[in-house]
Design brief:
This protein has about 270 residues and is mainly α. Helices cover about 65% and strands about 0% of the residues. Strands 1-2 form a two-stranded antiparallel ribbon.
């Protein structure tokens, strides 16, 4: 794809700051939840929240050999720190606003995806590397948070639809952009990413376990089913079992009203 014909998508500054604050607040809430177990102090909570809110954008810009936009001014780091303080102080109130927070998080996922995608394509990256950069741009913050907290990485565990939703939105952008332009492709990508993420929450969708792709395990399961089928046939059980005529069955005569499994005639 010719990157010279593609312009990067610019997110409004207010939305950008709000997304950073949301990510930082989520990082602070996660850190506060395990602070006692992991022995995390207040400085640790603040650092984890800042890394969560700014991590995706910083990773994106570093991969594109640019000075991270989050470090060009004081606004982003200050906003992330403020969000960490507020989230830690009003954690119970924020828990009541969870549906709104989840919806805005899904929207931010799509926005940061298209920003990363468009910047990567404009920088001349190929389609596959551009998708890789775009997905990292919208998910790296959570990965950094989990690494710092020494917990399982939610992005790659069963049940997380972050990467799947981002991949779907990325494919829509890459397919639609040459035909409808960057702006329309970006909106389509955001809508698809947001919709997939929200529907996965509403309907309880879950990503399959990696063992589902294990061919050896699948062959073993097929062999077990085959052996059980042979046993059923050889033992005469199940639907292959011969029917026992009622008049020959122990304790049953013609007075039983059954002959060969059919009602007696008159």
């Amino acid at each position: 794809m010719d990157g010279s014909t593609v312009s990067s998508v610019a997110v409004p500054h207010s939305v950008d700051i709000a997304s950073v604050m949301l990510g930082a607040a989520q990082g602070a809430l996660f850190a506060a939840g395990v602070a006692a177990k992991q022995r995390i102090d207040l400085i640790g909570v603040a650092l984890i929240s800042i890394a969560t809110g700014l991590g995706g954008g910083i990773v994106r810009d570093l991969l594109l050999n640019e000075v991270p936009a989050a470090l060009r001014s004081n606004g982003y780091v200050s906003a992330a720190l403020l969000a960490a303080i507020v989230a830690s102080a009003f954690s119970r109130l924020l828990s009541r606003l969870d549906p709104l927070v989840v919806a805005f998080d899904a929207l931010s996922l799509g926005l940061y995806l298209v920003v990363g995608l468009s910047k990567a394509v404009a920088a001349g990256l190929g389609s596959v590397p551009a998708v890789f950069v775009g997905i990292l741009a919208c998910t790296a913050g959570g990965v950094i948070r989990d690494i710092l907290l020494r917990t399982e990485i939610a992005l790659v565990t069963v049940g997380s639809f972050y990467a799947f939703a981002a991949l779907g939105g990325a494919l829509v952008f890459m397919v639609a952009q040459p035909h409808v332009g960057t702006s329309h492709a970006a909106w389509a990508s955001v809508i698809v990413t947001f919709s997939v993420r929200m529907m996965s929450i509403w309907f309880g969708w879950s990503t399959p376990h990696a063992s589902a792709l294990n061919l050896e395990a699948g062959m073993e399961r097929m062999e077990q089913l085959a052996r059980s089928g042979v046993q059923v046939i050889t033992r005469g059980s199940g639907f292959m079992r011969p029917r026992v005529r009622a008049e020959n069955a122990p304790g049953r005569g013609r007075t039983g009203g059954v002959r060969g499994g059919e009602p007696d005639g008159d």
